[in-house]
């Protein structure tokens, strides 16, 4: 066997050895604090294996959130900071198996072509068995076709990534930058509570608008209740009872109809799931839509957060419910029409229920926060307290202006692909 054959065999042996040899894990430096809720201690009762390392959590909800997007928590896990070289190599091959395999095959084929060329010019000597095989069986076009095919796949993959990046920016803009992933609402400086109201302000700003545009466009109410709508408070006995998060929207007086048209309200729903393109590939299993209980005035939804048959000895029940909007975009292929791109996370409702002997204790808490802002709404232009607040925002005292531009109607309707034909009347 000559040196060219030995090189090829050695290459296969090295790649095979890396793929089959176990990862050297080194010293165990397991996390003490939960990587999701970093102020809580982790427990061996809630542990998963990630990149051949044990990762511990404080509860099952955090395990679920970690499994959705584990890579965003890697920098807070000490056991992933000093991975041995052999482990890094294996992880690299596991993540890039396709390109590595294609590269190795192309290198082998190109090497064989070079081998054939060099032996073809030696006319006085008898070619070896390998040389005869190469000359007869391998066409010069083979590595070229494989290379073109591989590059084509890479270009297609890059286009998909660019499309996903652009689509994610259109849907979420600053959500994950401002609130993390999964997004977590910011808590106002209030006492723990299980029932509260929150207020949404106007987007537009102009001296021609009431109070320079700082007025209320929605009122939200959050509370806990059972399946019949009976509300729970601190001290309530919840053993053997279903628990629902009750979410309500009230429309303030004189707000324009276009903010509450059926087309928009039908896209709103509640879920605990979080994904950059949530709902793009199929139905959302736990989605709960809003129900209009008073025409153009009041909407509500009951979202289940604890079943009656749940363990009565459970000391805690916590999580985040998202208020989302279905997002659609125009496909480049016109015959496909609009396609579901995902879901925009408008608000998050965080609940942290403390239970003792089946009774909700006094430090149980629930709060709501906004999870997005638009490009035209930088924080320096519209303070968050004027856009979403736990304290009341002024209400319009009279009929609003009728100028579509001042109200932002063209922009809102352009997003919904609706022609601007008139100014919708305000509704008292």
What does this structure look like?
By secondary structure, the chain is of the alpha+beta class. It folds into three domains: 3-17 and 94-170, no CATH class; 25-83, no CATH class; 173-427, no CATH class. Helix content is 30%, strand content 25%. It has helices spanning 3-20, 60-68, 85-95, 97-120, 129-137, 141-172, 175-179, 262-265, 384-387, 404-407, 409-415, and strands at residues 43-50, 53-57, 195-201, 216-225, 231-232, 243-250, 255-256, 268-271, 288-289, 291-294, 298-306, 316-330, 338-356, 359-360, 365-370, 388-389, 426-427. The strands form four sheets. Strands 3, 4, 5, 6, 10, 11 and 16 form a seven-stranded antiparallel beta sheet that branches. Strands 8, 9, 12, 13, 14 and 15 form a six-stranded antiparallel beta sheet that branches. A two-stranded antiparallel ribbon has the order 1-2. The longest helix is centred in the middle third of the chain and has 32 residues, at 141-172.
List keywords for this structure.
single chain, 428 residues, alpha+beta, 3 domains, 7-stranded antiparallel beta sheet, 6-stranded antiparallel beta sheet, 11 helices, 25% strand
Strand and helix layout:
Blueprint: H1 3-20, E1 43-50, E2 53-57, H2 60-68, H3 85-95, H4 97-120, H5 129-137, H6 141-172, H7 175-179, E3 195-201, E4 216-225, E5 231-232, E6 243-250, E7 255-256, H8 262-265, E8 268-271, E9 288-289, E10 291-294, E11 298-306, E12 316-330, E13 338-356, E14 359-360, E15 365-370, H9 384-387, E16 388-389, H10 404-407, H11 409-415, E17 426-427
Antiparallel strand pairs: 1-2, 3-4, 3-16, 4-5, 4-6, 6-11, 7-17, 8-9, 8-12, 10-11, 12-13, 13-14, 13-15
Helix pairs in contact: 4-5, 4-6
């Amino acid at each position: 066997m000559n040196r060219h054959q030995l090189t090829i065999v050695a290459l296969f042996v090295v790649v095979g050895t890396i793929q089959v040899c176990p990862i050297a894990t080194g010293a165990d430096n397991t996390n003490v604090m939960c990587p999701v809720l970093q102020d809580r201690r982790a427990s061996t009762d809630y542990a998963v294996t990630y990149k051949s390392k044990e990762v511990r959590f404080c509860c099952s909800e955090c395990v679920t959130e970690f499994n959705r997007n584990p890579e965003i928590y890697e920098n807070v896990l000490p056991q992933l900071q000093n991975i041995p070289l052999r482990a890094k190599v294996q992880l690299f091959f596991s993540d890039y198996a396709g390109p590595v395999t294609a590269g190795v095959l192309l290198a082998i084929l190109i090497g064989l072509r070079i081998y054939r060329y060099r032996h073809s010019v030696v006319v006085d000597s008898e070619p070896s068995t390998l040389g005869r095989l190469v000359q007869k069986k391998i066409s010069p076009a083979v590595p070229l076709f494989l290379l073109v095919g591989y590059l084509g796949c890479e270009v297609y993959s890059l286009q998909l990534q660019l499309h996903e990046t652009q689509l994610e920016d259109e849907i979420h803009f600053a959500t994950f930058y401002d609130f993390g992933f999964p997004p977590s609402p910011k808590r106002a400086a209030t006492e723990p509570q299980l029932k509260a109201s929150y207020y949404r302000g106007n987007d537009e700003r102009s001296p021609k608008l009431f109070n320079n545009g700082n007025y209320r466009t929605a009122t939200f109410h959050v509370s806990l209740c059972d399946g019949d709508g009976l509300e729970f408070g601190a001290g309530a006995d919840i053993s053997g009872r279903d628990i629902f998060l009750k979410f309500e929207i009230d429309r303030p007086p004189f707000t324009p109809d276009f903010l509450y048209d059926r087309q928009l309200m039908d896209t709103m729903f509640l879920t605990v799931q979080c994904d950059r393109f949530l709902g793009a590939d199929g139905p959302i299993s736990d989605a709960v839509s809003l129900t209009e209980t008073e025409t153009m005035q009041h909407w509500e939804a009951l979202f289940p957060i604890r079943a009656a048959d749940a363990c009565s000895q459970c000391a805690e029940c916590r999580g985040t419910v998202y208020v989302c909007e279905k997002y659609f975009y125009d496909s480049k292929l016109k015959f496909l029409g609009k396609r579901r791109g995902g879901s925009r996370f408008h608000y998050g409702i965080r609940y942290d229920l403390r239970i003792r002997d089946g009774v909700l204790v006094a430090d149980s808490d629930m709060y709501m926060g906004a999870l997005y802002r638009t490009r035209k709404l930088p924080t320096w232009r519209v303070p968050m307290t004027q856009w979403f607040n736990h304290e009341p925002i002024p209400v319009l005292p009279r009929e609003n202006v009728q100028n579509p531009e001042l109200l932002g109607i063209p922009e809102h309707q352009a997003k919904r692909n609706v022609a601007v034909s008139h100014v919708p009347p305000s509704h008292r």
